[in-house]
Design a protein that fits this description.
With 82 residues, this protein is of the alpha+beta class. The chain has helices at residues 34-38, 66-81, and strands spanning 9-13, 27-31, 41-45, 51-55, 59-61. The chain has one domain: SH3 type barrels, CATH 2.30.30. The chain is built from two helices and five strands; from the N terminus they run ββαβββα. Strands 4-3-2-1-5 form a five-stranded antiparallel sheet. The relative contact order is 0.24.
């Protein structure tokens, strides 16, 4: 399992058509995956709680205020602990 850290990235889904377990306009955590990025994908933890590859074009990166980012990181860490 990948730990939730200060470098954890978040994206927002901008196109969920034909993608099971992903919702449009929802924020998702990205897991680091060099091979996925080489083929134009992101490794996302989806609604099932599992991580899968999804096309990068379906997401937009989020630049967050530090307080918001800290809260998202804490929430993601809490999900993993539960």
């Amino acid at each position: 399992m990948t730990p939730v850290t200060e470098t954890t990235q978040f994206v927002i889904c901008i196109d969920a058509r034909n993608l099971p377990d992903i919702e449009a306009w929802k924020v998702y955590r990205v897991l680091p995956d060099q091979k996925a990025s080489e083929v134009g994908c992101l490794r996302i933890i989806d609604e099932s709680g599992e991580d899968y590859l999804f096309p990068t074009s379906r997401f937009a990166p989020l630049e967050l205020a530090e307080e918001v980012r800290e809260r998202l990181v804490a929430a993601a860490a809490g999900e993993r602990a539960g």
